[in-house]
Amino acid sequence: MIADVLAEATSRMDRAVEAAKEDFASVRTGRANPQMFQKVLVDYYGTPTPLQQLAALANPEARTLIVTPYDKSALKAIEEAIRAIPNLGANPTNDGSLVRITMPELTTERRKEYVKIVKSKAEDAKVRVRGIRRQIKDDLDALKDEIGEDDVARGEKELDAITKAHVDQIDDALKHKEAELLEV
User: Fold this and answer.
1) C-alpha closest to that of 16 among 28, 5, 8, 27
2) Alpha carbon 114 to chain centroid, angstroms
């Protein structure tokens, strides 16, 4: 029983760490990266649709990204959705068949702002992991009558180790992204 509860905790915490890494990838560095547009939703005939379902993203140069829509009628909606992205700082241009996005150079102040954004996202992810820990601890406490206090205490120690490992993974991803952002 405890093993099942801990396996659920590990699974849920793994998903929280992956979500944090995806959030980190959406914050731009000095290079154009298709992952920055992972969560962009385009208003396609009244339906919010992920950009990857509407267009191919290519990265021909370090600071340029080309978005080629599968349906040319979605070109204007794609351009508007990209323009609406907060903290991007780029102005997409539309030549009638594709959208070209040239990323401006990042200033030192802008890099520091992005580091703050990433740190905030990391803290949110840690809060999610701790919330999962709290829920699983409650589940373990509910099992106290069935399996005994000693087994529950051992389970809680394992849960703490699992939580620490996942928080460390988030910290490692944060350090990596911070170094990437501050790299000139």
Assistant:
1) 8
2) 14
pLDDT for position 184: 64
Give CA–CA dist 184/181, Å, rounded: 8
CA geometry: angle 46, 48, 51, nearest 5 deg = 125
Give the predicted TM-score (pTM) of the model.
0.71
| 57 and 37 Cβ atoms separated by less than 8 Å | yes
Quick one: DSSP state of residue 107?
P
Q: For tokens 């501050």, what's the residue? A: 182
Q: Which pLDDT tens digit goes with each residue over 7-16? A: 999 999 999 9
Task: Say how far apart CA 161 and CA 151 lie, in whole Å.
Answer: 15
3-state SS record for 9-60: HHHHHHHHHHHHHHHHHCCCCCCCCHHHHCCCEEEECCEEEEHHHHEEEEEE
